[in-house]
Design goal:
Two copies of one chain form a homodimer.
Chain A (H helix, E strand, L loop, with lengths): L6 E3 L5 H4 L6 H20 L1 H4 L10 H13 L2 E5 L3 H13 L16 E3 L6 H10 L5 E7 L5 H18 L8 E5 L5 H9 L2 E4 L13 H9 L4 H15 L8 H14 L4 E6 L5 H15 L1 E3 L5 E4 L2 E4 L10 H6 L4 E8 L26 H18 L4 E6 L4 H22 L10 H10 L6 H12 L8
Parallel strand pairs in A: 2-3, 2-4, 4-5, 5-6, 7-10, 7-11, 11-12
Antiparallel strand pairs in A: 1-12, 8-9
């Protein structure tokens, strides 16, 4: 058995283990043809989708540029939001030192990494207090080349840079990751002679982690991106399996789908490892934006979509587990467990004569976090809460790449099960239009007047 | 009008604004006596509850000890989890520089602050790479004095400290915050002559932010804790109001309760300010652990509890808003808006001839984040999603203290509406027992054997 496989275990969704809120063998068996058809549909569109082929890309352009940046920069700042930030953050948290930016430079493997992924004035201004612009490279990431928050951040830091290094110096401090042909950022790159990296035209933001979006920042901080891709390629092999019973992506898509049909409208991803914390955040976008849809492919109004929730073991035992164990039966849990941490962190107890702490003597943090994960899984199972587990033999580039790819495939297959388009996001359009109207963008005057009229109808009795 | 009031606006839950998924005036009117009784019940138990009186405590002991630590430490490490970590983190994020720990020491107002709130071996070990033990003080926080993760962390760092500064030097590096009389940590403090701060015996973890738990770390980093308490005192005045229509805590408790009854089993707290990000995490514990209950006060099995979800504006527009706008009608939104940021962060656009970016020229990040918040609120309202807004005139110690207290009161009142005990957490017991069993604690052998037997029934066919 390949010890590097991220294993998927669904024992605890079975009704004979977890009780009436689980699934019976008969329910699963009846749904397997649906899952098999979903696998077939996704595999049949690999070329159009683009992202399924990403494990096989040539990374030499990314690695070369990353080497160049590593050589001359102390800091890399990623300016991106949504799919252009969540992946880079998740990979960094998973594979680098937990206090990476605070490490003395001789203990880091590369430049500091900051991803200020919000249009917050204080956050962006504050970043200027802790970086040395002359030794900083900005990686501006937007597929469309027009994302408001990212373009605003680009303008903001461009201005600061120009003041410090001059217009002529800018090119040394910018790498723009965007559509290979279209968009404002592409035009800007051409005008300024700035370096660029492409995002394949058919790959949407939330499926872009294994493009230059995620790979370039990772390579700059010294992560082996070919290992990430090798893991993804291995997951590709596993998830091409046409028998759903042998395909973890299909099996988990089916389980989440069936349990949603049974009223579990939330899926909690709960890693028992601080390193995997932000993978849960990356998954939140992937799952929510792909499956949360008003209209199905037949054009019917369906308003579907399970809500992904990020929780962290053991931390959230002290916050959410009371609700998870005793609240409504409205959730399915996805635990992420790690078989082997990089170190144990042993404990010695000079107070072992004090009864409540005796059991900790001679144990380790690794034993404790693993015991707590197993205990919580058991307690939720006994409380009748269906749950699955993803077992990482260890957290490294190979297993992380596997897991990213597996979740992407799981999401695409779930889209088939829900019979919706998992690759669009029509629901964010109204907010964008309203933002343009409120920002005074040309052509949006009518909308602005409507908004102001709506504000006029505001009832002050409902304000306390 | 006092410009420092955090205002609560519920226009967008009204059915005539948001449509059929909102509440009618008649529904609210009918429920007001229930809310009034809930206010009365909570106010009638102020002394037993303890936390309602915290705004009026004497802070001199905390401030004196904090001054002493500020004078001799470069770093404060808080060892705590759940209520002993979420509050200190939320306050720090809200009121200090966004990259506080990375600031050069002359720009910080006090020591660095780390809160490694997980029993993760790598996280805890890594902290030793970035702190200087000789200049570090550890604030160990556990109400019971027995919390496994916190005691493990204490033992781990105590060992490292003893190696560096010797057994005799330990007292200079430890402040233990715990029950004034009971528990292992109290015994340990007495044995070692370590400094302690008390958590009032009747105040539970999730209501302890305004005790030494939250106040001491805040005072060490230079936050004006008397301002926090002054804000809380003001919120106390506002939430003692017996007419629910004039009491923001009661009105929001009622709205969340009524919408939960109508199938909105999730409450999304979405601050439009990076500073308020972790307040949403603090609220997650408060709301979930207080209201997620199996049994009501009559002893009936009810399995109630809305699920609190943390989202961040604008960041999560690019992750969750597709689902929020188009998915099932299963959520109510609590927006947090800030009227005035500490700075604007203006934008200048040398590419204003490129059409898609023209509108950003001469604008600011502050305008953008405010426009996006208003636009998202509008889009969700128009999509029929009920939502309320909490308007912060600015984020400072006074408004933050107000908001903490208001949410605590809202939670207590909601407990009355659900007719459950909002102050216990029986559902975490099973997990604790299983942890002890798996850690080999004396007296838990039988449970360990049961767990091992259950593992023996594991079906390998359900592992892929």
């Amino acid at each position: 058995m390949n010890p590097q496989i991220v294993r998927f275990d669904y024992n605890n969704v079975m009704a004979d283990v977890v009780g009436q809120h689980g699934l019976t063998e008969a329910e699963i068996e009846a749904a397997l043809p649906h899952a098999a058809a979903a696998i077939e549909a996704v595999q049949g569109h690999r070329a159009d989708l683009g992202w399924p082929e990403l494990p096989y890309q040539n990374t030499s352009e990314i690695i070369e540029l990353a080497q160049e940046v590593r050589a001359r920069a102390d800091t890399l700042v990623v300016l991106g939001i949504g799919g252009s930030a969540l992946g880079p953050i998740a990979t960094q948290t998973a594979l680098q030192h937990p206090f990476y930016n605070q490490l003395p430079s001789e203990l880091r493997r590369g430049p500091c990494l900051y991803v200020p992924d919000n249009a917050d004035p204080e956050l962006n201004a504050a970043l200027l207090d802790v970086i040395d612009l002359e030794r900083t490279v900005f990686n501006v990431i937007t597929k469309s080349g027009t994302t408001a928050e990212t373009m605003a951040a680009f303008l903001y830091f461009r201005e600061a840079l120009a003041k410090r290094v001059g217009e002529k110096g800018l090119a040394e401090h910018l790498v723009l990751t965007t559509d290979p042909r279209k968009g404002a950022l592409r035009q800007i790159a051409e005008r300024g002679g700035f370096k660029t990296l492409p995002i394949p035209a058919n790959v949407g933001g939330r499926f872009s982690e294994l493009t230059a979006v995620g790979l370039f920042p990772a390579a700059v901080t010294g992560i082996d991106i070919n290992e990430l891709l090798a893991g993804a390629a291995y997951a590709d092999k596993r998830t091409q399996e046409r028998d759903p019973r042998k395909n973890p992506a299909a099996m988990n898509a089916l389980i989440q789908f069936l349990l949603d049909q049974k009223g579990k409208n939330m899926v909690v991803m709960m890693p028992y490892a601080s390193r995997l914390r932000d993978v849960a955040d990356w998954f939140r976008q992937l799952w929510a934006e792909s499956l949360g849809k008003r209209i199905n492919r037949a054009g019917d109004v369906v308003n579907v979509g399970p809500t992904p929730i990020k929780a962290l073991g053991v931390t959230d035992q002290h916050s959410q587990v009371q609700l998870y164990a005793e609240g409504p039966f409205d959730k399915v849990f996805n635990f992420l467990f790690v078989d082997q941490f990089m170190l144990e962190a042993p404990l010695t107890n000079p107070y072992s004569d004090i009864n409540e702490t005796t059991y900790l003597d001679g144990k380790s943090f690794e034993q404790l976090i693993k015991a707590e994960g197993a205990a919580t899984q058991l307690a939720l199972t006994e409380a009748g809460r269906p749950n699955v587990a993803h077992h990482f033999p260890a957290v490294n580039a190979y297993t992380l790449g596997q897991y990213y790819y597996m979740l992407e495939m799981q999401t695409a297959i779930a889209g088939e099960l829900y019979n919706i388009n998992a690759f669009d996001q029509p629901g964010v359009e109204a907010g964008k239009v309203a933002t343009y109207a409120l920002m005074g963008r040309e052509g949006y005057d009518e909308r602005r007047q409507e908004i102001e009229a709506a504000r006029g109808r505001h009832n002050d009795d409902y304000v306390i």
